[in-house]
DNA sequence: GTAACTGCAAAATATTTGCATCCTT
DNA sequence: AAGGATGCAAATATTTTGCAGTTAC
């Protein structure tokens, strides 16, 4: 399926920046911050538009947001078919404390934890921190 | 053990703001943001000093930082005896999407996930999101 | 043609830093 | 007494908003 189709599938108009950012993320195995995208695309697009593209992608279920303890969030492509209504990314994330990269471990599901009475979860985020395969 | 002893245990001088914030957190069952502390303490202390106190407590292993997807981090007391060198908070967190509170589920350990080859984790954060016991 | 998207300026929010003064030890 | 802690001002970092002009459909 082409990039154009992916965007239209999520009810989005096809624009340059959306194609470029989408393509960039598909080729990438790590999550990106806004700052990284800005370095790559600031010659062609405004930084505000990059923020808006990220938020649009989040809303449409193209991306998921990964909070980090460093002040700026990271974003990565959703694996399957998230939408505005249904947004589920139940895989494990890993953050390398050396190269600072965040990778999605799509094959690892978050294990089930029995929550205390009357806690009803509909989402979970599991982030490991340590040395990744390239840095260890 | 008194608050003063707890602070000295972590190589900290005993000052008003440190005592007040420490006491506030001990009495609390949820994680707090800087903004919440500011509302409580801004008459007595400067907002910058609150930031510095949080960072000092983080560094000394009194607090742990909980990144959220809302732009501002939350902080909660460490359970046992974290230090600057050893900082381990391997319990589950729960964020209520209604009341927005973040609680530490100290009794729930993060389950072991077998990471891919050559990934070496030394820390993990697991955050569930949904309705807490009071809101469900 | 029209609603949605983009760029630029500015605002809002979150956090850190410099420095003079004050306080704990 | 000395070094760490605080308050104030200012700087930096991150993200959002308003609006006019442009573009996808």
Number of helices of chain A: 4
CATH superfamily of chain A: Winged helix-like DNA-binding domain superfamily/Winged helix DNA-binding domain
Briefly note the CATH topology name of chain A.
Arc Repressor Mutant, subunit A
Q: State which percent range the strand residues of chain A make up.
A: 25-35%
Q: What is the ordering of alpha helices and beta strands of chain A?
A: HHEHHEEEEE
Text of the CATH class of chain A: Mainly Alpha
The side-by-side strand order for the widest beta sheet of chain A comes to 2-3-1-5-4-6
Helix percent of chain A reads 25-40%
Number of strands of chain A: 6
Radius of gyration of chain A: 16 Å
Shape of chain A: globular
Distance between the termini of chain A: 36 Å
Oligomer: homodimer
- Residue stretches of chain A low in confidence (pLDDT < 50, at least 5 long) are none
Largest β sheet strand count, sense and barrel closure of chain A: 6 strands, mixed
Secondary-structure arrangement, i.e. CATH architecture of chain A: Orthogonal Bundle
Averaged pLDDT of chain A, please?
92
Task: Give the count of structural domains of chain A.
Answer: 1
Secondary-structure class of chain A:
alpha+beta
Largest interface: A-B, 36 and 35 residues
């Amino acid at each position: 399926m082409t990039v154009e189709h992916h965007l239209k599938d999520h009810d989005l108009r096809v624009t340059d920046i959306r194609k470029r950012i989408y393509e960039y993320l598909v080729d990438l195995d790590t999550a990106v911050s806004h700052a990284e995208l800005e370095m790559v695309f600031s010659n062609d697009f405004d930084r505000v538009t990059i923020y808006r593209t990220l938020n649009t992608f989040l809303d449409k279920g193209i991306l998921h947001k990964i909070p980090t303890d460093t002040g700026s969030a990271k974003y990565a492509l959703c694996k399957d078919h998230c939408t505005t209504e249904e947004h589920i990314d139940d895989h494990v994330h890993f953050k390398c404390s050396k190269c600072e990269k965040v990778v999605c471990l799509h094959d690892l599901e978050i294990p089930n934890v029995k929550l205390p009475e009357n806690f009803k979860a509909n989402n979970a985020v599991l982030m490991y921190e340590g040395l990744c395969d390239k840095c260890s």
